[in-house]
Amino acid sequence: MMNFEIDTGFIDEQNRKTKTEVAEDYDHLAKQLHRKNIDIENLTTKAQALCVAVPSWGVGTGGTRFARFPIPGEPRDIYEKLEDCSTVFKLVRSTPAVSLHIPWDKPEDPAGLRRFARERGLHFDAMNSNTFQDQTDQNLSYKFGSLTHPDSAVRRQAVEHNIECIEIGKVLGSKALTVWIADGGNFPGQIHPRRALERYLESMHVIYKALPENWHVFLEHKLYEPAFYSTVINDWGTSYYCARELGPKALCLVDLGHHAPNVNIEMIVARLIQLGKLAGFHFNDSKYGDDDLDAGSIKPFQLFLIFNELVDAELCSVPYFDPAYMLDQSHNVTDAIESLMMSAVELARAYVQAHLIDRQALTEAQEKCDPLKALAILKQAFTTDVAPILAVARERSGGAIDPIATYRTSRYRERKAEERPAGHQVSTGIV
Ligand code: LRH
Ligand code: MN
Questions:
Q1: Is residue 423 pLDDT above 80, yes or no?
Q2: Ligand 2 centre from 254 Cα, in Å?
Q3: What average pLDDT does the segment 144-162 reach?
Q4: How far is CA 92 from its chain centroid?
Q5: Ligand 1, residues 125, 223, 282, 329: which to mutate, most atoms within 8 A of Cβ?
Q6: Does residue 294's CB lie within 6 angstroms of at least one atom of ligand 1?
Q7: Minimal-distance CA residue to ligand 1 atom 3
Q8: Ligand 1 within 6 A of 128 CB?
Q9: Confidence class of residue 430 from pLDDT cuts 50, 70 and 90?
Q10: Shortest-distance Cα residue to atom 4 of ligand 1
Q11: Please, what's the largest Cα pairwise distance for the chain?
């Protein structure tokens, strides 16, 4: 029995329901923007070109240490995860890339998996290593660390795992390895901060040497959790120092949830762009800690301000500026496919709104020390409803004008519940 898939005919049929009103809204917005010498077609083309990677671990239901509430029709292996990633891509068209996590997604047949993905228009973005959990067949535990563990045998085991991720990634066509380590302590005195950082660099130098010519390694910093007193790679400064020590292939990845509340993340982004070390992002949102909530759901203005820095760099053709955009979220109470689609749309919204900013007027206001004028120029762009541009961009790329409505009308999840009998769940880490 062929697995159910949403086909283009169904998407077209659903689009016909709202196509006329969207075209009217688009023409109206076009006139408004034209008055400001902004060509709406240029923005729509930009929206169509935006590429975001979805996390393989994001298509299942997420959980916390307290509980996980799975839903019927969850993916049970990497192939079903890719089916769901391709459904997201079919409807929003901006997510042709998937970021895998090893060993959660360790493929028996990487070449076969690459073919399966390509048949669905998907390719593989950064690989993610995992030395923050112990696998059943593992010799040495990561309980007290991995790349910075006092025992060199544990460090070696962690280095070898990262090199294995690179080897798998090479067959899959990936071009980057993301290294996030949980290493840190829960008590004062538990970790010697300087020795731990030296060991991190010693281990990372070995991993760095294993990178193919055209690959990068993304260093992901995080303030805390699972370590609750000190974390070895705790902030962007430490990450930047290490990336510079390692060499040009090492860059700094910014996960939005990995900072203390109210940290000015757009400033960190501007710094890493200026220092030529911005790897890219794990986009999500949070209210308190690393909540991994849907991007743009809590602080949409912050997301806009981050894209303001990114678009400014893009328009200034800043050297080495080629950030990777990935989502890294945990969908605990929503249908993961709906959350990923909604989040991809929020990234496109922030990106297009950032292209609406009158940068000449903004620079003038900044140089003339006119803060209110500067803020008003940003708010003008942020408060412009670009939904018609996003809908037309999706439709022109063969996607859904209304991804959520089309997805729900397709009864995709209900169909998957029939195809994927519950109870045969594979425990795949946080999902
Ligand atoms: C750590 C993190 C990291 C992933 C994990 C799933 O909090 O953001 O990027 O490996 O989540
Ligand atoms: Mn992350």
A1: no
A2: 8
A3: 98
A4: 15
A5: 282
A6: no
A7: 180
A8: yes
A9: low
A10: 180
A11: 67
**SS3 call for 42:** helix
8 A C-beta contact, residue 131 and residue 181 = yes
- Quick one: which atom of ligand 1 is closest to the CA of 130? 10
Residue 212 pLDDT class (50, 70, 90 cuts): very high
Q: Is 304 in the pocket of ligand 1 (CB under 6 A)?
A: no
Ligand 1 atom, smallest distance to 330 CA: 6
The type of residue at 280 is G
Q: What is the pLDDT of residue 320?
A: 84
Cα–Cα distance for residue pair 113/117, rounded to 1 Å: 6
Taking the C-alpha atoms of residue 282 and residue 296, their distance in angstroms, rounded to an integer, is 13
Say yes or no: CB of residue 283 within 6 Å of ligand 1: no
| Nearest ligand to residue 181 Cα | 1
- Using an 8 Å Cβ cutoff, are 180 and 222 in contact? yes
Q: Residue 328, Cα to own-chain centre: how many angstroms?
A: 5
- Taking the C-alpha atoms of residue 258 and residue 5, their distance in angstroms, rounded to an integer, is 36
pTM: 0.97
Characterise 296 by phi-psi region: left (phi > 0), alpha (psi -120 to 50), beta (else).
left
Is the CB of 328 within 6 Å of ligand 1?
yes
What's the pLDDT score for residue 421? Answer: 87
Q: Are 240 and 252 in contact (CB under 8 A)?
A: yes
Question: Would you say the CB of residue 220 lies under 6 angstroms from ligand 1?
Answer: yes
- Determine the Cα–Cα distance for residues 341 and 48; give it in Å rounded to an integer: 15
Only one residue has tokens 């899959």, namely 172
Q: What is the DSSP letter of 17?
A: T
User: Degrees (nearest 5) of the Cα angle 281, 285, 289?
Assistant: 105
pLDDT greater than 90 at residue 424: no
- By the 10 Å C-beta count (0-12 exposed, 13-18 middle, 19+ buried), 347 is classed as buried
pLDDT digits (tens, 9 = 90+) for 294-320: 999 999 999 999 999 999 999 999 988
Question: What letter represents residue 83's amino acid?
Answer: E
- How remote is the CA of residue 290 from the centroid of ligand 1, in Å? 9
Q: What is residue 61's DSSP assignment?
A: P
Closest CA to 182 of 200, 194, 168, 198: 200
- Mean pLDDT, the chain, integer: 96
Flag whether pLDDT at 138 surpasses 80.
Answer: yes
Q: Tell me the best of 255, 325, 326, 329 to mutate to test the pocket of ligand 1, counting ligand atoms within 8 Å of each CB and taking the most.
A: 255
Atom of ligand 1 nearest to the CA of 430: 6
103 upstream amide cis, omega within 30 of 0: yes
pLDDT at residue number 103: 97
Amino acid identity for residue 373 in this structure: K
